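sanity check this chain:
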Amino acid sequence: MSKKLATFMRSGVALLVAFVMVLSLNTNVKAAKKASIYATNKKITLKYNSHADGAYIMSGNQGLESIIKNYNKKAKYSVKFKNSKVAKVVKNPTYKEGDDKTWIASKGVGSTKAYVYEKVGKAKKKKIGTIKINVEPMTMSEVAEDAIWGHYQSSINNVYLYKHLNILSYNLGENIHNKSLNNPSIKVHFDKDEYSISYRYSTPEDFQIDFEDEASADASSNPVGGDLALDASANASSNASADASANASANPTSNTTEEELKPEDIISLSDDGIITAKEVGTAGVYYSIKFSDGSELNDNYVSVYVQDTSIETGIGINMDNVRDHIVGLDTPVELADGSKIPMINFDNASTTPAFKEVQAKVNEELNMYGSIGRGFSQKSNHSTDVYNEVRQKVLDYVGADSEHYTCFYVNSTTDGLNKLASALVESKNDIVCATRIEHHANDLSWRERCKVVYAEVDDKGRVDYDSMEKMLKKYKVKYVTVTAASNVTGYVTDVHRVAKMAHKYGAKIIVDCAQIVAHRKFSMLGETPEENIDFIAFSAHKMYSPFGGGAVVGLSEELNKHIPTFYGGGTITIVGDDWQHYKDAPARYEAGSPNYPGVVGLGKAIDIMSEVGLDKVQEHEKVLNKRLIDGLKKLDNIIIYGDSENIDDRVGVVTFNFTDVNTQCLAQELSQMGGVATRRGAFCAHPYVWRLMNIPDDQLESFEGCADAKTPGMIRVSFGIYNTEEEVDKLLELLPKAIEKAKVEQTRLDVIPEY
């Protein structure tokens, strides 16, 4: 190439780049709108009290985004105060990507001018307006009201006492102080000598007044008084139990029914706010606070629920009242707008919340905790007995007879499958047949140790049993490993059919039971011996006991032939200088000090799931699946993965996408706008997800990391025992609004939908 031609080409490229830059600048200029202060915000009033940070008090701050007209999220805004003792600029304490990031907050009583500046790109900072700020004094009671109700404290406003768990008292005064009046997390700080609290029982007259004020016309047809007033108290409270009377009737611990009891019959209430359970029922308590500045916060209502539901007595937990037995369901989470509501948890395939009885049982057993198996004390003997009793519960729960099967404890399904793989695989040349539906735990644990061949899935995403048989015919397969239920589509595998097939070709079968044990009845035994399952693994944290427990159940004879690559105390009978003898299973698979709380929690969770009945759980999930799928079908541009017509072989899992919405943006909006927890991504089952999304393997390495909004993925809704049709309806109602916000966000982030 000649020097003249090269120079000419370089000049041409430079001119082209310059032209594009000018064009871009012109476009930006045309698109930009001048920022200014809204006329209604040129004067703002905030409040301040030294007992709280203005950034955390609703009347103590205002976001710049709501003040500035034509607010530019790509610009940087700053504020200069004439009197810096009155106001300050803070970052939104609950800021999340896309929120109003910068706030003006009160700092002291007085007035000041605030000069607001904008800086776009490399341009100079310019003043866009002036705000007159007046900060008025805030009374102590106003601070308290915001702390108690603005930062809604469910554990104060709803108190649960359990007679059968010996949880009989609650210090209301201490909880008001620690969770509302002196809570560092919401920057509120009162000393106890700055206020006093008085307490009283609710009365029928409290609710007569409320009803007469709100609906005097209804009062004549629905008189509130006497027995009905107590029921009204439950309805009047912020999160009262509609089934309180049903609970009491289901728990007949005395000859007096709840309707006949007064609050003082159900609980005792001391002058210093200690509530103590007396009888099963629902009671109301009011408290009023007087502050040293003379202000008062009167008649704050608390619902108290006294329960006596115990699975040992066969009374208690069922599908109608199970929500009352889940930890944290009424705990509020903060939304993008600063409001707080209880979260709707649709991420149960990842992990489940604890049963209250599981939590209480773990706490109870820790009082008698001692070393397992090797101690010489009453506590050690007790803990060892409990530890071994749970083994039998596990075997019974999965239909395994103790003559042929044993159970050893693990920390999770992943831990269990890795221990099995480390024990059973004897050579890199061993062949394991898995499926393309598997979770990584039931794939990587094998492919890192030996050769793995895979049965494919059909066009609906179900396991292709013909493909599996081809693998068994083609290769000398030692083990077949399959999931009992998919964490992506919820499909239930016919594991007994697979077992019969595996045994026909001389292989053993391992089943990943993580997604089945809390959803459907499972039995190691088939209708014939050929259909029996050889090994399973599952986690307790997916069945309402998130304390790190889990179990592997397997053939004792086979487990005794192998040993995992985990060694240590408790696994041996004797050790010499250069030799050792190992115990039989299960001990040889349980090196080191065990996770006793995990085992206790697992045992209690099994009790509860057995009490509720997995047949009832299965029917409940079918209802939720159908309601969600039917609702999703009404939305534009929807993709529902798996068979959405024949859903009988699906546990409570539904995955979906929209052709025009980025999944990460949508999942974030569902959480930030409505407190709806879903899962977004490929769910640790990448090969299966990529197949369902029709993404070829040779395109995948560009998505490495899987956390970026540009990475393909789905949204998963997975149901728990406690989810309701009303929660499904709330999700369906929220989706159109969340989709619109997600589209705005995906444009801002420049992330196109994946399809």
About this structure: The first helix runs from residue 3 to 31.
